[in-house]
Amino acid sequence: MLFVLASITSNIVGSIFLLTGIAKVIEPWKFAQHITKLNLVNPKLIIPVALTFTAIESALGVALILGVFLNLIILVSILLLFGLSILTYWSTSTGKTTDCGCYNGLFEITPTQSLILNAIYIFLLIFAEFFGKYQPTIFWQWLVVLITLITSYALAAGSLEYIQENGRPYIDFTPLQENRMWQIEWLGEDSKSLMSGSVIVVFMSPECSQCKHWLSLLKLAQLQDNLPAIVGLIDTENLQIGQNFVDRYFLNFPVVAVDKRLYKKLKIEVVPTAVLLKDGVIQQRWIGLMPMWFINKINQG
Predict the structure, then answer these.
(1) Cβ distance 146 to 18 under 8 Å?
(2) How far is CA 101 from the centre of its chain?
(3) What's the DSSP call for residue 53?
(4) Which CATH number fits domain 180-299: 3.40.50.1110, 3.40.30.10, 3.40.50.10150, 3.40.50.150?
(5) If pLDDT is split at 50, 70 and 90, which confidence band does 167 have?
(6) Rounded distance, CA 301 to CA 294, Å?
(7) Is the backbone peptide bond immediately before 272 cis, with ω within 30 degrees of 0?
């Protein structure tokens, strides 16, 4: 009976690893942004680190499910969970991040809940290590793990390339999708000015470093009559913070301070995010990266 339970426990943790790995494959920019906030990795290495971790996480999940070299894989998984728990405690207690980043936005959990879950996973793996009785690994099993490692890396890299070229992810759950109308209730009275002409609405945050890289380009775009007007949104209801943001960066376009709940409602999980509207209809959405065609238009102007 204990052998069966040990197999089930390793499968449970393996399934969690695989699920979170798939979440990162689909939206790797979220995890990359989380790594950026930690400020522990050279900016040039953030993308390779995010892709590599995603691939390893997915491969570990498959290895635990298939029973590949389980004595070693369980030990590696325990050490990984322990290390991630320390990192989560440090990053959230110092204010660098607000969550563990483990689930890539798939679930909304607090840092405390994350630490408790990690402790449960470690307990399950220790149980599997002591009471499991495993068959020798055969060729096709570790081959599947290797294929998972390579495929996960390639798909995550492909997701990043796709969003860079198209301004939207493969799989899109947000209400801000192409050919949908901007809803008046999202901004109330401030929405009326967005319902005619071409407008780019940019979702930002005062703490976002990438947003600051966008600002100089957005200010140039606002000066050019042949480009859409710019409207900025920042996730704070404190009007003074909003005004300080405008003054600090000498912004020449309107900025509206909004409730953080609007970002959650519209599933704005990465900033900066922008939508291009034409007569109130969403034409494009950009996440994290401004498309090259728009940058080229600004430079040509």
Answers:
(1) no
(2) 8
(3) H
(4) 3.40.30.10
(5) low
(6) 11
(7) yes
Q: At what angle do helices 46-66 and 70-93 cross, to 10 degrees?
A: 140
pLDDT tens for 225-234 read 899 999 999 9
- Give pLDDT, residue 239: 67
Question: Domain limits of the chain?
Answer: 1-166, 180-299
Q: Which two tokens stand for residue 261?
A: 């709940």
Question: 120: which strand partners?
Answer: none
Nearest Cα residue to 121 out of 29, 20, 49: 20
The answer to whether the beta carbons of residues 62 and 11 sit under 8 Å apart is no
**CA angle 208–33–228, rounded 5-degree value:** 55
Sheet of 273-278, strands arranged across: 255-257, 229-234, 198-204, 273-278, 281-287
Q: Rounded to whole angstroms, what are the CA distances from 24 to 51, 53, 224?
A: 9, 9, 38
Residue 269, CA atoms < 13 Å, CB-side half-sphere:
23
Query: pLDDT (tens digit, 9 = 90+) per residue, 189-219?
Result: 888 889 999 999 999 988 787 888 899 899 9
Tokens of 271: 């900033």
Token pair recorded at residue 123: 């307990």
10: closest CA among 76, 105, 54?
Answer: 76
Give CA–CA dist 150/173, Å, rounded: 26
Percent composition of the chain: helix, strand, coil (DSSP 3-state, to 5): 60, 10, 30
Strand partners, 278: 198, 281
